[in-house]
């Protein structure tokens, strides 16, 4: 009732200011009642949106991350979670982009997660690492959506050299990151420790287990960045999984188009300019590179390459690539 009375008062004040408080009221034509009411409703709705922007949302009472409860009832852990949660909510523009990017990349990443039988919550680790930006490079030169440093990427099977850097390949880097996380889970027996090791390195987590007599992440004393990391992943999950709850209702038509490619293994017999492959896909060079960020130079030397082709361009690509004697398709794998 109080809320309704307040809105009526606001509407009345707006009506007075719009209808009577203007200095040129004598020169203005009177508006029809229906038009005035419609304008008032719009302005009142605008005020409500502005008020909701500043309203502090309630912190969830419980959260599961990889099916493990985050103990928000403990004061110190709730404080750690709230630090990440409220900092994220301060940047609603970024969160809007993240919701849209999630719609773009979630189908591909979730498919790879399901293939390996891993927890779907691992996608929020990628969101935390890179905001799902496959082109991002950190100050420490960690690259791609899963933020591999060069040595770790190579160790986990990614091809990284002067011509190719598969840390930027959405599908390949996702598979490598998930395989690495699975190995970490096999070692530590806990997904939160696996994620912590992904951030800090497995050596740091082994040392903590050895010296602190616990295998419970929430009981460990870890570097602040790693300590914050898990809470940041949890906060990311809470917000992105419940966008409407936090005022991020995105119309499906405004979400970014899903990343949908068919992966081909291509044999290059002689040096080939990447523009030739773009033309075979009926794409501009820019559109071709957006799908194949791992190809780092204009010219592809002799060798084998993984190539991402738009799902709706596979037929034309296969037809045109056959006409080029310098390249041959070895295999295809729907991703």
Concise synopsis of the structure shown:
The protein is mainly alpha-helical and 335 residues long. 52% of the residues lie in helices and 10% in strands.
Which labels suit this protein?
single chain; 13 helices; 335 residues; 3-stranded antiparallel sheet; mainly alpha; 3 domains; Lysozyme; two-stranded antiparallel ribbon; 7 strands
Strand content: 5-15%
CATH topology category name of the largest domain: Lysozyme
Report the radius of gyration as a whole number of Å: 26 Å
Main sheet: strands, sense, barrel: 3 strands, antiparallel
Name the helix and strand elements from N-terminus to C-terminus, one letter apiece.
HHEEHHHHHHHHEEHHEEHE
Helix content: 40-55%
CATH class of the largest domain: Mainly Alpha
Low-confidence stretches: 19-26
**Count of structural domains:** 3
**CA-based shape:** flat
Total number of strands: 7
Distance from first to last alpha carbon: 54 Å
Separate helix tally: 13
Label the CATH architecture of the largest domain: Orthogonal Bundle
Average pLDDT over all residues? 88
Strand order of the largest sheet: 6-3-7
Which structural class should the secondary elements be placed in? mainly alpha
